[in-house]
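Weekly modeling sync, notes
Attendees: S.R. (lead), two postdocs, one rotation student

Agenda item 3: backlog of single-chain predictions. S.R. asked that every request posted to the team notebook include the full sequence so nobody has to chase files. The rotation student volunteered to paste the first one in as an example of the format we agreed on. Action items at the bottom.

Example entry:
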Amino acid sequence: MNDITQQIAATLKATRARRGWSLTLTAVNTGVSKAMLGQIERGESSPTVATLWKIASGMNIPFSAFISAPEQHEGVLRRTGVPAPVSAGETAMRVTPLFPFDARLGFELLVVEVVAGGASASSPHERGVIEHVIVVSGELELDIDGVWHRLTSGDAMRFAADRPHGYRNSTSVPVRFHNLIHYPPRPATAAGPDADASAVEFPDDRL
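Predicted structure, as returned to the notebook:
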């Protein structure tokens, strides 16, 4: 089991344990089969980026909670080098956590690369989640609730992510973009100033 597979497995198992969710209930809330969730928890399967998004959205936790250790800092956080990208079983998209979720600030910043000819769909996130997409290089086609938008290097778009959306690269070269995802405030009891970012959960009206 490689490091990222182990991180995903441990986070999924720990989040289920905190909530007291069975694999069956987790499958209902995420849309990912019970068998697949079990394989991921045991480290027998590496989920695609799209599947991991479904799990994160269904469990109401930041995507980067699955792929980054929480950061501890005193107002200043500097990145040196390039963190390992997450591609897992994915062939179309690679995601690199530039700044993982910070509960005090309410956002995470990801670097996303879609390969030439690649596409990836994302399930709706929770109400109040906002995505900011800034294209660094290449040409991105961004689907927001069935409407496609073409963005080139330097273009940016902000949208409510509680609707179906997706990313597509119809060109012959990779496209790279920054994805800043802002999450709505949570009750103070859900995450205090010293809370572990990996343990942050959002209110779930479906339970």
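Discussion: group reviewed the output briefly. The beta strands are 93-102, 107-114, 119-122, 130-137, 139-144, 147-152, 156-160, 165-168, 175-182.
Action items: rotation student to repeat for the remaining queue; S.R. to check formatting next week.
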